[in-house]
Amino acid sequence: MATGKLIVLTGPSGVGKGTILRSLLKRHPELYLSTSVTTRSPRPGEVNGRDYIFVTRAEFERMVAQGELLEWAEFAGNGYGTPRRPVEEQIRQGKWVVLEIELQGARQIRQTFPSAFRIFILPPSLRELEYRLRHRAQDSEEAIVRRLERAKTEVNAADEFDIQIINDDLDKALDRIEAALFTPAEAVGV
Ligand code: 5GP
Fold first, then answer.
1. Radius of gyration for the chain, computed over Cα atoms and rounded to the nearest angstrom
2. How many CB atoms lie within 10 A of CB 80?
3. pLDDT in tens, 168-178
4. Which of 13, 74, 139, 171 has the fewest CB atoms nearer than 10 Å to its CB?
């Protein structure tokens, strides 16, 4: 039976992972994007079941306790996690599954799914990242400060990943991700 592949996309909040992902999925509709659970409140425009599955803290803790999450982490005061069942199902069916998750979760995946291909998205600079976080005006000042602190820690861990992509130009970043995912290793001499 065909076995799928797990692809992990990580990078600091505000780096543009969402935009990269949407474009990647448009180019490759065969990829399956995992929908995470989170305890944070929906932002304007976010849809339950599409952007996230929004759950209460009690429900989140129940899922953790019963092993229903493939990985999970606390991020800026909220819980986030990947429901295990759909991911395992898709992989069993030979699909390529993409997780868009933060650093702690990516580290757990490295332990539980060593064959996962892990991509880290870097901002052109931390100053640029701060600008983007403030510009999107979705979070309170307190949340922005927390996210920036966390961003510094995440950027320092970029070397733990299989590849690092600087998001200074969307098309170039996408091309590099595609090359890494879809070029057979022997063709690039790896
Ligand atoms: P946001 O609140 O901005 O949507 O997400 C905050 C952070 O949580 C982002 O870095 C995002 O990648 C991460 N995240 C989203 N879903 C998950 C998940 O299921 N697990 C983990 N570990 N992180 C997640």
1. 16
2. 22
3. 999 999 999 99
4. 171
47 falls in which pLDDT band (50, 70, 90)?
very high
- Say how many Å lie between the CA of residue 101 and the centre of ligand 1: 5
Atom of ligand 1 nearest to the CA of 147: 6
Q: Specify burial of residue 182 (Cβ count, 10 A radius: 0-12, 13-18, 19+).
A: exposed
pLDDT tens track for 21-33: 999 999 999 999 9
Atom of ligand 1 minimally distant from the CA of 103: 22
Ligand 1 pocket (Cβ < 6 Å) reads 13, 36, 40, 71-73, 75, 80-82, 100-102, 104-105
In angstroms, rounded to a whole number, what is the distance separating the alpha carbons of residues 143 and 125?
20
Domains of the chain (ranges, CATH numbers): 5-188 (3.40.50.300)
Tokens of 168: 């200074």
